[in-house]
Amino acid sequence: MMIAVNTEILVDVWQRLLSDPRTSWVLFEHGTCVVLAAPGGDLAEQATEILREFGPVHAGSAAGDFGVIDVKDADGWVVTGHHQDVLTYVTPDEPSGQETFAVGMCGRSKRHRDGTELHIVHVEDRRGSAGPA
């Protein structure tokens, strides 16, 4: 069962996790974040294209793979996939268990929903926000 996570909570978590002032990112409805390594033009459009290609799960392929990161700056985990800049946040209440497999499957399922529904809830445009070197 998937629990809906409040958008404000998700934005707060990703702002803490992606604290580099030069990192722009786009957040999708179910907690998947696309980090834009080379942001240009319309960030929402750029992130949507990445997630359209790398979000949906295809069992038996790299698109079904995942890794789980136990994050220090938030309760929960970040689930990785086959694109290094596509990350999904999972709260402690969401997976059916606390073991890595359950967390990973939950995050993978959320990434799949975000990759097929493609509903953006937040754009963090940090281009030009970095101070002098």
Per DSSP, what share of the residues sits in E-state strands of 2 or more residues? 15-25%
Radius of gyration: 14 Å
Unreliably modeled segments: none
**Order of helix and strand elements from N to C terminus:** HEEHEEEHE
3D shape: globular
> What can be said about the biggest beta sheet?
6 strands, antiparallel
- Number-wise, the strands total 6
* Intertermini distance: 46 Å
Tally of separate helices: 3
Strand arrangement, major sheet: 3-4-5-2-1-6
What structural category do the secondary elements indicate? alpha+beta
Task: Break the fold down into its secondary structure elements and pairings.
Elements: H1 7-17, E1 24-28, E2 32-36, H2 43-54, E3 67-70, E4 77-80, E5 86-90, H3 100-117, E6 120-124
Antiparallel strand pairs: 1-2, 1-6, 2-5, 3-4, 4-5
